[in-house]
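Postdoc handover notes: sequence design on the structure in folder B. Input C-alpha cells:
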C-alpha cells in the first residue's frame, strides 16, 4: 500500500481553499493509501503568533480533520510538535541545504516583504522543516494545493543532495516524494478578487468562506462577493476570473460535473446563481459542522486520537531519523 503524508498549519480558520485544495482530497483517497496527516504547529510559529491560541487552534484543526471525514482505520492523525524527530531532522538537513535555495522561495519572499524587519530565521527555514515532515514518513504522495509545489520541488532537491553526499549510489537513504496536486480546487480564489488566492492571511473576512461559518455569514459573503457585469456564467474565460472561481466552487460542492454545471448556469444571471451557490455551500458544510461540534464536545476522544497518532507516527519517524544519522556518521546514542 502506498503512503500519503500531508499537513495544514493551525493558524486561524480553515477555509474552502484548504478544504478543496487539500483536506477533501485526503479524505477521497484515504482508503487506497496508508495516510499520515498532521497538524503543522511548528510551522505556525514562523510568523508572529498568539500563545493563548496555539493549543486551542491545534485541537480545533484535529477536530476538523475528523469532521471532514478522515477515518482512523486508514489515517494516522498527529501533532507535529509531539514528534521531536521533525525538529531534529530539520537541523541535520539545514546543514546540507544551500542558503540560496531558501532565499529563492516564492512564499518566503512574499511573506518576508509583508513582515518588514520582523523576519525570523524560522520563516526562511520553513521549507526545510517541511522537507523533514515529509521525508521522515517516506511517503509516495504528498497531496497539497498548488501554492506548495515549489516546497515539494525543494524537498526533492534536498533528497538528491543528501543521497549524493551520504548514500551509496544504488542505496538511497531518503526517498523521493511526489506531489499530488489535483487540477480542480488546487487554487480556490478570493471572493473579493478572483485573481488572488483565498488565504487565511487576507485582512478581509469577506474574501473567504470558513468551514465553520454560520449560514448567515455564508449568505452575506456570497451576497457581497465580486462579480462582473456579464450575463450568463462560464468556466475558463481568463477575462472572467470570478465566474470561473464561483462556478468551480459550485461544481465541487454540489458534486455535479463541469458539463452539468455549464448547461445549468450558462444562461443564468448573478442574481439567480448566488442563492443557488449559497444553498449549496451551506448544505455541503452542514454535516462537517455538526460532526465538528460533536467531536469538540468530547475532548477525551480527541486526546486519545492524538496520543495514538503520536505513537504510530513516532515509530515510523524515529526509524528514518536513525537511518539518516547513521548515514551521516553519527555515533549511536548509548
Ligand atoms: P495553509 O493554510 O497554508 O496551511 O495551507 C494548507 C493546505 O491548503 C495546503 O495544502 C495548501 O496548498 C492548501 N491551500 C491553501 N490555500 C488554498 C487555496 N486558496 N486554494 C487551494 N488550496 C489551498
Ligand atoms: N507548508 C504547508 C502549508 O502551509 C503545511 C505543511 C507543513 C505541509 N509541512 C507539510 C504540507 C508537509 C505537506 C507536507 O500548507
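Designed sequence:
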Amino acid at each position: 500500500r502506498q503512503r500519503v503524508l500531508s499537513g495544514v498549519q493551525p493558524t486561524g480558520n480553515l477555509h474552502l481553499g484548504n478544504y478543496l485544495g487539500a483536506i477533501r482530497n485526503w479524505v477521497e483517497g484515504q482508503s487506497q493509501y496508508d495516510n499520515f496527516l498532521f497538524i503543522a504547529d511548528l510551522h505556525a510559529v514562523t510568523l508572529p503568533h498568539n500563545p493563548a491560541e496555539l493549543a486551542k487552534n491545534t485541537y480545533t484543526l484535529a477536530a476538523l480533520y475528523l469532521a471532514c471525514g478522515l477515518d482512523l482505520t486508514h489515517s494516522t492523525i498527529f501533532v507535529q510538535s509531539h514528534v521531536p524527530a521533525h525538529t531534529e531532522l530539520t537541523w541535520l538537513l539545514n546543514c546540507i541545504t544551500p542558503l540560496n535555495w531558501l532565499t529563492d522561495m516564492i512564499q518566503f519572499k512574499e511573506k518576508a516583504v509583508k513582515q518588514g524587519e520582523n523576519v525570523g530565521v524560522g520563516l526562511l527555514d520553513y521549507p526545510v522543516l517541511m522537507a523533514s515532515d515529509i521525508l521522515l514518513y517516506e511517503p509516495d504522495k504528498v497531496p497539497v494545493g498548488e501554492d506548495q509545489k515549489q516546497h515539494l520541488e525543494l524537498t526533492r532537491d534536498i533528497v538528491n543532495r543528501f543521497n549524493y553526499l551520504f548514500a551509496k549510489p544504488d542505496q538511497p537513504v531518503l526517498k523521493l516524494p511526489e506531489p499530488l496536486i489535483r487540477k480542480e480546487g488546487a487554487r480556490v480564489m478570493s471572493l473579493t478578487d478572483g485573481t488572488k488566492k483565498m488565504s487565511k492571511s487576507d485582512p478581509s473576512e469577506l474574501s473567504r468562506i470558513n468551514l465553520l461559518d454560520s449560514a448567515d455569514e455564508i449568505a452575506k459573503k456570497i451576497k457581497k462577493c465580486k462579480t462582473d457585469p456579464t450575463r450568463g456564467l462560464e468556466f475558463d474565460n481568463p477575462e472572467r476570473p470570478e465566474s470561473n472561481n464561483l462556478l468551480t466552487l459550485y461544481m465541487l460542492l454540489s458534486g455535479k460535473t463541469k458539463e452539468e454545471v455549464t448547461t445549468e448556469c450558462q444562461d443564468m444571471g448573478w442574481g439567480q446563481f448566488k442563492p443557488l451557490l449559497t444553498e449549496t455551500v451551506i448544505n455541503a458544510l452542514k454535516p462537517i459542522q455538526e460532526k465538528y461540534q460533536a467531536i469538540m464536545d468530547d475532548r477525551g476522544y480527541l486526546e486519545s486520537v492524538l496520543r495514538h497518532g503520536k505513537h504510530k507516527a513516532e515509530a515510523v519517524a524515529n526509524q528514518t531519523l536513525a537511518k539518516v544519522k547513521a548515514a551521516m556518521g553519527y555515533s549511536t546514542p548509548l
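Context for whoever picks this up: The pocket of tryptophan (ligand 2) is lined by residues 5-9, 40, 43, 130, 133-134, 142, 144, 148 (CB under 6 Å). Don't rerun without checking with the PI first.
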